[in-house]
Amino acid sequence: MTLTLPPKVTDRAFQRLAEILKATGQQKSLRIAVEGGGCSGFQYDIKLDDPAADDLIIEKDGQRVLIDSISLPYLSNAVIDFSAELIGARFVVENPNAVASCGCGTSFSLA
Fold first, then answer.
1. Strand 88-94 to strand 79-85: parallel, antiparallel, or no bridges (unpaired)?
2. Where is the Core domain (predicted)?
3. pLDDT tier, 51 (very low <50, low <70, confident <90, very high otherwise)
4. Do 97 and 76 contact (CB within 8 A), yes or no?
5. How do 29-36 and 63-67 pair as beta strands?
6. N or C: which end of the chain has fewer CB within 10 A?
């Protein structure tokens, strides 16, 4: 698997990250990682974290999204967004590399 296009982060995701950091008083970044597990084979791990040496950093208005070098190929051309619905609010990953996903949207499989 080769990286063709870096992931994109929506303005809505950056805005929500800014709100979270302001409310908590933290100076962290949003990390999006892909790990083995979940009901479909891979799952997203989304958390506040500090940058590491091998991270891709996507930055806007002082807010940063981090993606480690191992996760990066799995997130080629993905869109990281924030969704607020009646059932809850969360960061979501629209991943064109996923061929199947579970109902919760945090687990996926690749071809």
1. antiparallel
2. 8-105
3. very high
4. yes
5. parallel
6. C
Which residues are within 8 A (CB) of 23 and not within 5 positions of it... i.e. 6 or more apart? none
Neighbours of 51 (CB within 10 A): 14
* Amino acid letter for position 88: G
Q: What DSSP assignment string belongs to 63-102?
A: EEEEE-TTTGGGGTT-EEEEEEETTEEEEEEE-TTEEEE-
Tokens for 49? 């974290």
pLDDT surpassing 90 at residue 40: no
Domains and CATH numbers, the chain: 8-110 (2.60.300.12)
Q: Looking at residue 3, what is its pLDDT?
A: 46
Structure tokens at 33: 């990682």
Confidence band (pLDDT; 50, 70, 90) for 13?
Answer: very high
What average pLDDT does range 14-36 have in this prediction? 95
Three-state DSSP class for 1?
coil
